[in-house]
Structures are given as C-alpha cells and as structure tokens.
Amino acid sequence: MKKYHVGIVGYGWAATAHLAAINGGARGQVTRICSSRPLDAAELSQRHQCPLQTHPDFAAMLAAPDLDVVSICSYHAQHKAQAIAAARAGKHLIVEKPLALTLADLRAIEREVRAAGVKFCLCFELRFSAQFLATKALVDAGQLGRVHYGEIDY
After folding, report:
1. In degrees rounded to 5, what are phi and psi of residue 42?
2. pLDDT along the chain (154 residues), means of 10
3. Can you tell me the distance from the alpha carbon of 95 to that of 99, in angstroms, rounded to the nearest whole number?
C-alpha cells in the first residue's frame, strides 16, 4: 500500500493537528513543512517523531519530486494562491477552512483542481458530530427562538 508524502504549509495549531492526524493513519506521512517563520528541521523531527524537512519557500516545497499531497494550514488570504499553485504542480490537496474569502476565489480554485485532476479535501471535521447535529436540530426546530448570534466552544 502506497504511503503518500505530505507537505504542510503554515505551522500553527491547525498544522500540528493535521500532522498528528496524517501521521496517525496508515496512508500518509508528513515529510515537509513550509513556514514563513524560521523552523529547525531537527527540532521539529524530534518533537513530532518523524523525519521532517523545512522550507521557507512554498514553490521550493512544491518542486520536491517525492511530494504527493499539500495540506494548506496557512493564513486564509493565502489559500487561493497556494491551492492553485499546488494543483498546477499536480499535488493533491487538503485545505483548512475557509477555502477562500470570495466566491470568485472559490471558483478559481475549483477550476484549477478540476483541470489538474487532483484529489481535494476541505476540512469540516466537526460537521457531523452529534453535539453539532443536535444544536442545529434545535435551531432548525425554532426551539431556541430567533437566533441573532451564537458561539459554541467545544
């Protein structure tokens, strides 16, 4: 069974969650991290218990011939350009929400992903959690009245 080599762009909380989830499965292995902040590859490799290469330049990471998938965990305004560049480079995509900041940007990403024929995943991992389904059912049934604002901490 092929193990896909994954590069993560951005190194904040979401990236560490992606790294643990990807490495915890049988089909993926994070091998690269790209960040605008200087990162120590040896320190990160030790922290995450896997060999990692670091890149300050996204294009350089995309050029790695052994890279199969890009997980985009960067600033939201960077998602469009990074997703399009990764698709054009033939890399499959995992993108943290939000995918794009405008409908036009979303459509541009969609066109490039389809043209490249790469696989795509948008992270909405809690959409079907029981607690959120129950909350949505209460709102939809009108049992909470007219909701003006809501915030949920889980």
Report:
1. -65, -45
2. 94 93 94 95 95 96 97 96 98 95 97 98 81 89 88 73
3. 6
CA atoms of 12 and 69, how far apart (whole Å): 18
**Which amino acid appears at position 62 of this protein?**
L
Q: How many CB atoms lie within 10 A of CB 91?
A: 23
H or E stretch covering 136: helix 130-140
Beta partners for 72? 9, 95
Residue with the two structure tokens 């409908």? 103
φ, ψ of residue 143 in degrees (nearest 5): -75, -10
Helix (H, G, I), strand (E, B) or coil at 129: coil
Q: Which of 74, 43, 41 is nearest to 58 (CA)?
A: 74
Residues in the chain: 154
- Per the DSSP assignment, residues forming a β-bridge with 120 are 93
